[in-house]
Amino acid sequence: MENKLTIKDVKVKNQTVLVRTDYNVPLQDDKVTSDFRIRASLPTINYLREHGAKKIILISHLGRPEGQRVKELSLKPVALKLAELLPGVPVNFVDDVSGPDVEDAVSHLENGGVLLLENLRFYPGEEKNSEDFIREIIDSTAATVFIQDGFAVIHRAHASTSAVAKNLPVYAGLLLEKEISSLEKIMQSPERPLMLMLGGAKVDDKAPLIEAFKDKADSICIGGKIAADGAVQPAENIYIAEDFDEDAEGNKLDCGPVSTNHFVETAKNSKTVIWNGLLGKAEDITFATSSTIFLKTLGESKDITSIILGGDTTGFAEEAMQKDPSLEFTLLSTGGGAALEFLSGNSLPGLEAIENK
């Protein structure tokens, strides 16, 4: 992030600040079931308040409503959770992103207050990267500064990540800066030995990462369904799980003890570990053994730089941390897709849109 301007490079005092967050969180019965991504946005919100921002307007998407208004994907429950996490701070919600209702909500927002607008993807203009769409939001909120803090979406060329730069200067938020800086360090000067641990089900998603790291990582370990299917080409520094725990039908649903021990020993002999993709069908506790053991190895090893990527993997880590607060990880990334694109060497439209120093 050395060549990009961040929130620290702009004076926000008395400014109305528009912040692109990532509140794509799981909901059940109109309640947030994991507030990981909401809590990840708090440092940026608090920074703006502490530095005198007049009004803080938050925008985000939730799910894939495909340009339609879907009641179950409203961000209203997110606003309620955000209010819980910011006690004493005025947190309001408006069920639109532009127009008279938004203008009214902004005008009545207290100084230092926070306003969350409705789901961006209720409107076709967001995913069409429409300049007119994002301009309407900016005009309705009277925003003078734009902060990009939605790391999980910066690999998308959407109105709130790309077209926005044609309407306002874009600065990186604290979360985005943290994520990119951590990943840059891994790419440029990782502490060695460097281990890449891959799991999950889709080998096509992992292939670019394997290609990017085959000459960079000291070791690459493969678990999960992609190992069970035997779809990865072995190489000198690539270890593919060799034994599996099976269900009654003979489906390979978790890595077995031999493979798990190899993963653990490799991690213990590494200084940096990147992990993306669960090692088995971990939503079933019967087949969560390998993932659990490997996670605890990272969380209990204070001398390992541990980078955990992907929604399922970070969600698994979050759940484990709630049960055992002693577990610590260097980075639980909020954006698996964005992180994988970045580590694979691909350009990210949302990152390119941020002002250069």
What does this structure look like?
The chain has 2 domains: 7-177, Phosphoglycerate kinase, N-terminal domain (Rossmann fold); 184-343, 3-Layer(aba) Sandwich (Rossmann fold). Helix 9 packs parallel to helix 10 (289-300). The longest helix has 15 residues, at 36-50. The protein is elongated, with a radius of gyration of 21 Å. It has 13 helices and 16 strands. It is of the alpha/beta class and 357 residues long. Strands 5-6-4-1-7-8 form a 6-stranded parallel β-sheet, sandwiched between helices.
Keywords, please?
357 residues; alpha/beta; 2 domains; 16 strands; 36% helix
List SSEs in N-to-C order. Answer: EEEHEHEHEHHEEHEHEHEEEHEHEHEHH
Shape descriptor: elongated
Number of domains: 2
How much of the sequence is in beta strands? 15-25%
Q: Care to count the β-strands?
A: 16
Residue stretches low in confidence (pLDDT < 50, at least 5 long) are none
Count of individual helical segments: 13
What is the strand and helix layout of this fold?
Elements: E1 16-20, E2 27-28, E3 31-32, H1 36-50, E4 55-59, H2 76-85, E5 91-94, H3 100-107, E6 113-117, H4 124-127, H5 131-141, E7 145-148, E8 170-172, H6 174-188, E9 194-198, H7 203-213, E10 219-222, H8 224-228, E11 238-240, E12 244-246, E13 252-255, H9 257-268, E14 272-276, H10 289-300, E15 305-309, H11 311-323, E16 331-332, H12 336-343, H13 349-352
Parallel strand pairs: 1-4, 1-7, 4-6, 5-6, 7-8, 9-10, 9-14, 10-11, 14-15, 15-16
Antiparallel strand pairs: 2-3, 12-13
Helix pairs in contact: 9-10
